[in-house]
Amino acid sequence: MLSRVADSVFWMNRQIERAENVARAIETTLGLALDGTIEPGRLWNALVCAFGDQSDFWDRHGLADQARVFDFLAFDPANPNSIYCCLQAARENARTVRDMISSPMWEEINKCYLDVRGASAARADFADPREFIDEIQRASQLITGATDGTMSHGEAWHFARMGRLLERADKTSRFLDVEHFFGGEEGAGRDPVRWSSVLESASALEMYRKQYGAVSRKDTVRFLVLDRAFPRAMHFCLVKAEESLLAITGGTKGTHSTPAEQQLGRLRAALEYADIHEILGDGQAGAPRGLHGWIDAFQARLNAANDAIHTTFFALRPAGTVAEAG
Amino acid sequence: MDLRSYATDGFWDELFDDSLQPRPGAEQLVRRLAAFSHGELAARQRAADKSLLTMGITFNVYGHEAGTEKIWPFDIVPRVIDAAEWTTIERGLKQRIHALNLFIDDVYNQRRIVKDGVVPDWLVDSGKCFRGPCAGLTPPRGVWCHITGTDLVRGGDGCMYVLEDNLRTPSGVSYVLENREVMKRTFPQLFQGLRVSPVENYPEKLLAMLEYVAPPHARDPTVVVLTPGIYNSAYFEHSFLARQMGVELVQGSDLVVVDRKVFMRTTQGLERVDVIYRRIDDDFLDPQVFRADSVVGVPGLMDAYRAGNVALVNAPGTGIADDKAVYAYVPQIIRYYLGEDAILPNVPTFVCGEPDQCQHVLANIDKLVVKPANESGGYGIVLGPRATRQQLADCRDRIKANPRNFVAQPMLALSRVPTVVGDSLEGRHVDLRPFILYGEEIFVLPGGLTRVALVKGSLVVNSSQGGGSKDTWVVHRPTGDSPVPPSPSS
Q1: Do B241 and B173 touch, CB atoms closer than 8 A?
Q2: How far apart are CA B163 and CA B152, in angstroms?
Q3: Residue of A nearest to B264 (CA)
Q4: Fewer CB atoms < 10 Å away: N or C end of chain B?
């Protein structure tokens, strides 16, 4: 398929996945705010930090409160990671690849964008953010369902799935960095409420309970990083993303012929053999970094894998440097 | 619904005659409309509008912020053409396209028609769309105008006239297909028991034509649609056609020419392209040959085309037959090449490039419609009877400065079709754009795009200027005699 089209399909799915994750994190924070155990300013501030947009937010809005953060994350046209911007970009991408995707996919994406645009226009008298948040999550699930159910599982579909899963791995890792967002606050690490909310942000609480029962820091990290069966666990995401990558290149696991396969394979292998104590950095002399350091390193390597995918498939190479395909 | 209050106001109405009896082919449709309960029409119209929004059937308007998409208004009352009349229209269009293709091939090669004095040499040589670099070329299979969208109008005399030949990159066919789809979604009852010619096979016909005109080297040709991108006004149509044919939609930057062959850049490397259905004007196709500032074209494309390594559809240079001054000579062109009289008449046209006709136009400008010879989309047209004194004076100056570039026609009383206004019907003016494919044979899509001027009294049907569209039905009547279509009253 065309490099430009692959790029658009990949990003379209990342953007939709991103919007869904932002929506779910807002929902979780709304729940925590109702509990009243954490000072709201800290809570909403931590949410902005989770998406890495804190400096932009502080520059333009200053103090974090529910109304400002909600507007920033949901509707702000100047925040490229807001739900509105993600869906606008996703729809724009969908439009450029309208010929590649199925009509049910296009219609769901288009409908979702029109809904968000409508909600954004009426945001001044926004009564219930929850309804809106639910709507976004439902729309994302519908789009994912339409993608799996109505699009041939060929090259374009694999680019779509790879984009969605890499975005998801990134967001799950950010949700896990909750201690850091609360400024390494004393006691935050042991607070089961906060870890429950991390699980909720990844839509993982129910599945976690089936496996571990009571919520703890260690098991939450174990579940969200290392689980092989839960679809939002980072390990799961990388395994499936690599499968899609290999389906695209025709390669086999354990070998590589492109930088993309090399970077993603390495990262997947690192999770395959990772140890929970190593990740948490506790009880081991050689692991001073702790969870935040580990997550930081993971995100750096995920970015490297993304760059490699870009160079391998999307970058418009000058003519003559690529062998003619048969 | 009470149709007795409907008024034709002295115009030719496509559904009703002067005594409000349904015209041939429209009987069943009129009966169904009459049976509507109060409020139903408006409700159906709303359902159709919503359907269009969800389906994302949009166009972009130039002059607005980039990427401003609009839903193209759609009216749910179809325009009906009786199959017997359609047969004549179809024959007329095939005849016209056949002759125009011979004309284009001739003017870029032997120029017999100029030497024989049938058309003046200035007409061809000064044509804004005449492309010198195409001289001496013959495209694969000898076809130049693969896809045409001819504009037809019906005058007050009930006769169908050809208003314009659009042979460059005519758009609108996607709306023909989507309008039918929306009608079936929102108004299934209307179709029951009627035989309406299907339009759904157009993409297959289009693909078969594109594959037919592939250069000889390509046994299993790779076809692509070339678009300027998502900000083009017709982007929806470009992606629609690519999707329906199952071929790649490419932009200029996706293509590269190596050794006079065209390739597209894919995730697996370069892949050869054999046929390009290009929706980019000649001017922008190849910055090495035409406009050097084009960023949507492909450097080296014309070179590959001249080497016979790729087919371009429509062929570059076809626009010469799209010139409105050339249009005036089409009846002579048909007679010259085919030895036949034109089946579909032209609207009487004054060519300002001919001095005596120019004098007539300047003297009667307040009664005429003046058109630039090489614009499309309705741009630059001056309606004499509706223009201010200043506008007429400006128009005269423009004609005097460059007479070659203008033609003038009498103001036509375009026919009307009942159109939804609130919960009732009012007549609105329409035209008709049938689509013609020239491949192994000439194919005319039954019906075509009916554009309607939604503003009361307006004659401007262009999407960019307040026009909308309707589904167009070629209806086969089960029994009965076929009426003879009216011929022009001269």
Answers
A1: yes
A2: 5
A3: A2
A4: C
Task: Indicate if the alpha-carbon torsion angle A85, A88, A91, A93 is positive or negative.
Answer: negative
CA of B56 vs chain A CAs: smallest distance (Å)? 7
Query: Within 13 Å of residue A116, how many CA atoms lie on the same side as its CB?
Result: 34
Q: Give B248→chain A minimum CA distance, Å.
A: 7
Residue A313, chain B, CB below 8 Å: the answer is yes
Query: What Å distances lie between residue B415 and A187, A255, B458, CA to CA?
Result: 80, 70, 12
Helix-helix angle B173-186:B235-245, to 10 degrees:
80
Four-point Cα dihedral B78, B84, B90, B91, nearest 10: -170
Instruction: Give yes or no for A321 touching B (CB within 8 A).
Output: no
pTM of the model: 0.85
Instruction: Tell me the ipTM for this assembly.
Output: 0.75
Short-list B343, B47, B48, B25, CA closest to B195: B25
Cα–Cα distance for residue pair B488/B485, rounded to 1 Å:
10
Task: Per-residue pLDDT tens, chain B, 490 aa: give them.
Answer: 788 889 999 999 999 999 999 999 999 999 988 988 888 889 999 999 888 888 877 776 654 444 467 778 899 999 999 999 999 999 999 999 999 999 999 999 999 999 999 999 989 988 888 998 899 999 999 999 999 999 999 999 999 999 999 999 999 999 999 999 999 988 888 888 889 999 999 999 999 999 999 999 999 999 999 999 888 888 889 999 999 999 999 999 999 999 999 999 999 889 999 999 999 999 999 999 998 888 889 999 999 999 999 999 999 999 999 899 999 999 999 999 999 999 999 999 999 999 999 999 999 999 999 999 887 666 788 999 989 999 999 999 999 999 999 999 999 899 999 999 988 899 999 999 999 999 999 999 999 999 999 989 888 887 767 789 999 999 998 765 555 556 665 4
Q: Is there a contact between B56 and A106 if contact means CB atoms under 8 Å apart? A: yes
Name, in order, each residue with C-beta under 8 angstroms of A234's C-beta and a sequence gap of 6 or more.
A169, A172, A173, A224, A225, A226, A271, A298
Distance of CA B249 to the CA centre of its chain: 22
Residue A241 CA to residue A163 CA, distance in Å, equals 8
Alpha-carbon Rg for chain B in angstroms: 23
Across B287-296, b (16+ Cβ under 10 Å) vs e yields: bebbeeebeb
Write the residue in B54, B248, B258 that is nearest to A2 by C-beta.
B248
Cβ–Cβ < 8 Å for A12, A159? no
CA–CA gap between residue B283 and residue A64 (Å, rounded)? 54
Whether B269 and A323 lie within 8 Å, measured CB to CB: yes
Q: Give the three-class secondary structure for B276.
A: strand
User: What residues have CB less than 8 Å from B390, skipping those under 6 apart?
Assistant: none
**What does the block give as tokens for A32?**
């925590």
Length of chain A: 326
Cβ-Cβ pairs closer than 8 A, A with B, add up to 83
Token pair recorded at residue B298:
């492909």
Which two three-digit tokens encode residue A301? 């390597």
CB-CB under 8 Å, A99 with B272: no
Evaluate the CA torsion angle A25, A30, A31, A32 in order and state its sign. positive
Decide: helix, strand or coil at residue B251. Answer: strand
Q: Which of B429, B426, B448 is nearest to B437 (CA)?
A: B448
Distance CA B125, CA B19 (A): 51
Residue A29 tokens, joined = 């924070």
> Using the beta-carbon criterion (under 8 Å), do B243 and A99 form an inter-chain contact?
yes
Half-sphere exposure of A272 (CA within 13 A, CB side): 11
Task: Give the Cα-Cα-Cα angle B381, B282, B242 (nearest 5 degrees).
Answer: 100
Quickly tell me which residue has 């570039």 as its tokens.
B405
